[in-house]
Write a structure and sequence with these properties.
Helices cover 36% and strands 20% of the residues. It has 182 residues and is of the alpha/beta class. A seven-stranded mixed sheet has the order 1-2-7-6-3-5-4, with helices on both faces. It contains five helices and seven strands, in the order βββααββαβαβα.
Length: 182
């Protein structure tokens, strides 16, 4: 599914965030120490190779909502933007921190002249953020920021499974129909 808003195309796809060769930057759902782990961070670190971990070490630790940028090394992208999303039920205010993570990633992408970026559903894995409110924060942030983005022309959400894809599709339709958002 994809829609175009204010010259920005928003795509929703099911797939592997570490296999997005046609985008300039991929977003890592990072842990505070920017280390490899499970899920998105593990997949990105494995695909990028050991130089990614070396580049991340001096940038850690991150606080919830923060983002940093590194080279992508063995990934087919130019950059990896690492975002520490909130742990649901612990890091508060969770929704504001999640939105900040997306906004900070967009800011870094703009600073680096990125024209296309792929996001996972931040904080929805081990950090336990429920998919529907996570989709609202992610897509709402994109819709709010689309008019002010200068370099970014494509925002892709790479979703792990059909259930996440369905939630993001429903939320995108809902937000587009909201007169305050769409």
């Amino acid at each position: 599914m994809d829609v175009t808003l204010d010259k920005i195309r928003i795509e929703l796809v099911q797939g592997d965030i570490a296999d997005q060769p046609d985008v300039d930057a991929v977003v890592n759902a990072a842990n505070a120490q920017l280390r490899s782990g499970g899920g998105v961070a593990g997949a990105i670190h494995q695909a990028a190779g050991p130089k990614l971990a070396e580049a991340c070490t001096p940038l850690a630790p991150l606080q919830p909502g923060e983002a940093v940028c590194t080279e992508a090394f063995d990934l087919p992208n130019d950059y990896v933007i690492h975002v520490l999303g909130p742990v649901y039920g612990r890091d508060e205010p969770a929704a504001a921190l999640l939105r900040s993570g997306y906004e900070n990633a967009l800011d870094l992408a703009e600073e680096h002249g990125v024209s296309s970026i792929a996001f996972p559903a931040l904080s929805t894995g081990t950090f336990g953020y429920p998919m529907r409110p996570a989709a609202h924060a992610a897509l709402g942030t994109m819709l709010t920021n689309a008019p002010i983005l200068e370099h970014i022309k494509l925002v892709r959400f790479v979703l792990f499974d059909a259930k996440a894809m369905s939630v993001f599709e429903d939320m995108l339709a809902e937000l587009r129909d909201d007169p305050l958002m769409g």
